[in-house]
Amino acid sequence: MTKILFSDKLDNCVERWKSAGLTVIGPVQRSNISTYAAIEHAAELDFSLVLPDRSIKDLFFPQSEPMLRYTIKKESIDTDECLPPSGPRIIFGARPCDASGMAIDDPLFGWDYKDEYWFQRRNETVIVTIACTKADDFCMCTSLKMAPDSTKGSDILLRPLAGNKGWQVEELTDRGREAFKTIADILQESSDPAAPLAVVEKKFDLDACVTWLQNPENFESRFWKEISMRCIGCASCTYLCPTCHCFDIQDEGDTYTGIRRKNWDSCSFALFTMHTSGHNPRSTQSARWRQRIMHKFNYFPGKFSVNSCSGCGRCSRQCPVDMGITETLQEISKLSL
Ligand code: SF4
Ligand code: SF4
User: Residue ranges of the domains in the chain?
Assistant: First the structure.
């Protein structure tokens, strides 16, 4: 017997969590974009997609966020720090690749400086993940040594029952257990079997790719130019990626008053590494693409012992020129043979 949350009880759960003071967030369609957003009723949730266009990263690390407001006076500067909005939240229906993306970025945001904006939201959010029973050609969690039911980064894992009747509940953390205590009387014991997990084909040999990337002789390989000729530097791959985390800090305002903001940035942009002198150490799109791959599978794991990729496939799925990390790693796999 396993604890089951039946689908027809989900609206009761949403009401219960809201009454307990939690903001309930889940996969929805908003302005023709599939994303994660706050809901009032379970009927707003859309579980029909393999995964939403936008990842849950936006909920912890918004695209643009005010850090402080400033006013420059004759002999002083007034500053007013902007703290992240606080309050407990529950994300219901994240995918395992999105939840693991947040766990991948935790050491980055807590490394030499603890990013309070990130950690306040992380500490106040319960992530309830639904294991995947369907996948598309872009999904590649298994190539990253994960699985459609990976638990990394999740507080609760739900395994769908056959026939969309509900979910088996697996409580993983104290934070998850606490949130599910609120709905303890709604859950039922049942022996209903879980639906089969999605079959996600392994697309490349990650270890072979990493060995090739770590070989200094391959840094100047012609491969980088050949694989990235069609990249237009739009940064969709970065912005949709659950693990990409680069940002820039800009002052926006007039001479005397303004807001200091933290804005997403991307290694795909030419201006990302442009020096004031005009020199750009990554002056070509191929150098920028090489940096993206090297960062995710060589430099980041070298520092934090984890790849900066959860295998969600968004970078390939949404690329306007049909490029992406999958194709690059498949080609590197062949070069490594
Ligand atoms: S790889 Fe595709 S999505 Fe990424 S910057 Fe290049 S064109 Fe844009
Ligand atoms: S690099 Fe691509 S596949 Fe990996 S987590 Fe980012 S968007 Fe997903």
Answer: 2-335
